[in-house]
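input
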Amino acid sequence: MYAKARSTLKIQMKKLLLKKQFYIIDKQYKLAENEKQTSTNLVKILARCLKMFDAQNEVFKIIHLIEERLERVTAIKKEQRREEPDAERFKKLYQETVRFSVRILTEIRVLKSIEKTLARPFVFNGDMYDGDHMHDQNRRLRLQILMLCPKTAETPEMRMFMQPGGDLSDTRKLKREDYELREKEELWSSSSEEQDSEVEAEFENFKSVGRVSLDKVKSQPSELHRVRTLNTSV
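output
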């Protein structure tokens, strides 16, 4: 029982890219030593296994939400390239993008609260989702939409704005510098377009192997290798 619990914990932490942290815990509690195989330590191992299972489910959920958000971002970019962009579609897609952004940040906070070894930046496909990535992208997308469809500026959907910390607000309650272009920042900069192209290419590749639903990701734990986290000590 003790050996199975220890092996399960090792496997679960390896799936979450916490192999280094497992060996630190293993050494701290001396889990491999016979004299330490007590009922107290067994309970500790089982409790941590449960946390790792909860953390894995939370990661699956976050990946699923990121996929949904990327789908909206890609749709906005495609709409921008049309000769006559649909203002109503723009508003709907932007609103959904912002809402998914807020949900992603909320779930990342939940993930970090499950286990202290997971209190680290959440990086997926090179983008830090608990940093400024989504905020900056949402801000730029909003301004691009307003340039193409200026009449949407005063609609409830386009007044919706996610602040850097993840709080949902209304642009009327914010300072202009909070949601407008920053100094020396270009709305349609070449660097941003390159980034957008990379996002589209990645998403199209993602779709080419089939739509990744939450259930499918759960049946393929190997998807977790796509989540990159920064190593920190326990």
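quick obs: Residues 68 and 204 are 13 Å apart (CA to CA).
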